[in-house]
Amino acid sequence: MFGIASERKEGSGGVSGHSHRTHRVAGRFHGNMGFCTAFILPLRIPNWRFCQMAPRLIPYEDLKAKCIRYSKPHLWRLEKAGKFPKRVPVGASRYGYIESEIDAWINARIAARDEARAA
Question: What is the number of domains present in the chain?
């Protein structure tokens, strides 16, 4: 059927006790949705334990989603004073913030609040 993943097994003809590899094949979509065929196969990456994801950069506009509604000049003052994570230049007049550093900054503010309540 369209849009529903089907499975195809490869192996020694279905004899029990033998290992099988399963391939998932996504359905094809037609009509005004266009045509899409995707194959989801198990990937084997050598030394996968040593692969690291790149830090995620978020633009100034996305800070509002994290409830940081400071103006750019105020953020620059906080950065200069060492009270906010520094920007990362990503292009001509474009900067981003490392999301994990922003999350750590938010968690530090929460921890400071909780310590003040306990004291």
Answer: 2
